[in-house]
Write a structure and sequence with these properties.
single chain, 91 residues, alpha+beta, 3-stranded antiparallel beta sheet, 1 helix
């Protein structure tokens, strides 16, 4: 009888300890710096100054990969939604 009570106590204690352990959550793989990069970064541009021909520029309105050698962007991403149209009537 005492042996079975000890077993029940140990099983309960183990269950309590396991149940009280912090949740095992996986951290996000990448932190997305802008809503404009939700579909990805096509050229894997970074904010590293050692990559001037694929430099990531994050602005509130858009994101772009800048190419210093050409003086132009490699690509630009922005979000266009209903709020951009304003109150103007469109026929």
């Amino acid at each position: 009888m005492i042996k079975s009570i000890r077993i029940i106590f140990l099983v309960s204690l183990i269950g309590l300890l396991i149940g009280c352990s912090p949740a095992q959550t996986k951290p996000p793989d990448k932190i997305i710096p802008s809503v404009n990069l939700l579909l990805g970064n096509p050229s894997q541009a970074t904010t590293n100054i050692n990559t001037p021909d694929n430099y990531l520029m994050v602005k509130p309105q858009y994101v772009l990969s800048y190419n210093r050698s050409n003086g132009t962007p490699n690509w630009v991403s922005w979000q266009l939604n209903k709020s951009w149209f304003g109150d103007a009537l469109v026929c």
